[in-house]
Design a protein that fits this description.
This protein has 10 helices and 7 strands. With about 260 residues, the chain is α/β, with parallel strands linked by helices. The structure holds NADP nicotinamide-adenine-dinucleotide phosphate (NAP). The site of NADP nicotinamide-adenine-dinucleotide phosphate has 28 residues, from helix 1 and helix 6.
Length: about 260
């Protein structure tokens, strides 16, 4: 089910990041009242100064009490659960705390925010939930198992929840970006992709979010066709797709990205 953006109140998590800022701008341009959340107070206040009416709200989504406080007593018409940690790297390079933080921010927080906001949306018979997953939520690879776990989890959650909401006037859309250039966690890693591997922009992801809210598809890919089709094929031939990816150099690429993202863990 789709929702109207004009004059809706939209909560965007991860609003300080490369993709989050583009989402906030796109929603603001559609006339939504945007609540922009993240941990970086200065970045949120800069965004609010630039975009009239954007409301900054600081919260650490690794802390369950702050997740609950973020939405307590607020009317929110649309949730865009965008915040995430890259959580890239091989399993044995993680501490127990790092795994917990990745699960909390990438998976637990979107689930709890959705659970808390749904009764109000159901009561009003309108509203929408958007979950930003990744092509890593459809296709697993060496060097990204923790991130894969969180993003596959978010895919299952978003799809099943959309089914649960059939006929209520409320819907859920899960968005699957591939490699995003210009800004965000991949661009920040400083890694150059092999020739021929295409990218999309934060503005493309923002457009997909707007389409998700206004038209209500269950899933939207934001990637060049070969990558998006490869990720879909993984669903029925994972061994074959993984062998092809490995031969194309996916393992050293994943290791380089993990090295470039280490400080965000
Ligand atoms: N960039 C890509 O190529 C790409 C590809 C596929 C999917 N995605 C997905 O797109 C979404 C946005 O990623 P991005 O590229 O914009 O990454 P980014 O620039 O690293 O931004 C990540 C955002 O998450 C927030 N965040 C991280 N830890 C948090 C915590 N403990 N509490 C609250 N907020 C937290 C950060 O805010 P603070 O630092 O202010 O807390 C920041 O706003 C993510 O879900 C990511 O998995 C990105």
């Amino acid at each position: 089910m789709a929702a109207e953006l004009q004059q809706s109140t939209v909560l965007v998590t991860g609003a300080t990041g490369g993709i989050g800022q583009a989402i906030v701008r796109a929603l603001h341009a559609r006339g939504a009242h945007v609540i922009a959340s993240g941990r970086n107070r200065k970045a949120l206040e800069d965004l609010a100064r630039e975009l009239d009416g954007v409301e900054p709200l600081v919260a650490d989504l690794a802390d369950p009490a702050q997740v609950a406080a973020l939405v307590f007593g607020r009317r929110i018409d649309v949730l865009v659960a965008n915040a995430a940690l890259p959580a890239s790297g091989r399993l044995e390079s993680f501490t127990e705390e790092e795994i917990d933080r990745a699960l909390d921010v990438n998976l637990r927080a979107p689930m709890q925010l959705a659970r808390t906001l749904l009764p109000g949306m159901r009561h009003r018979g309108s509203g929408h939930l958007v979950f930003i997953s990744s092509l890593s939520g459809k296709m697993a690879s060496a060097g990204a198992c923790v991130y894969n776990a969180t993003k596959f989890g978010l895919r299952g959650f978003g799809f099943a929840l959309n089914e649960e909401l059939r006929g209520t006037g409320v819907g859920a859309t899960t968005v699957f970006p591939g490699f995003i250039r210009e800004a965000g966690m991949f661009a920040d890693s400083g890694v150059r992709l092999p020739r021929g591997v295409g990218t999309r922009t934060p503005a493309d992801v923002a457009r997909a979010v707007v389409r998700g809210i206004e038209k209500g598809p269950a899933e939207v890919d934001v990637a060049p066709r070969p990558l998006a089709y490869g990720a879909r094929m993984f669903g029925f031939a994972p061994g074959l797709v993984t062998t092809v990816n490995r031969r194309l150099g996916s393992e050293p690429l994943a290791d380089a990205i993990a090295k470039g993202q280490r400080e965000k863990r």
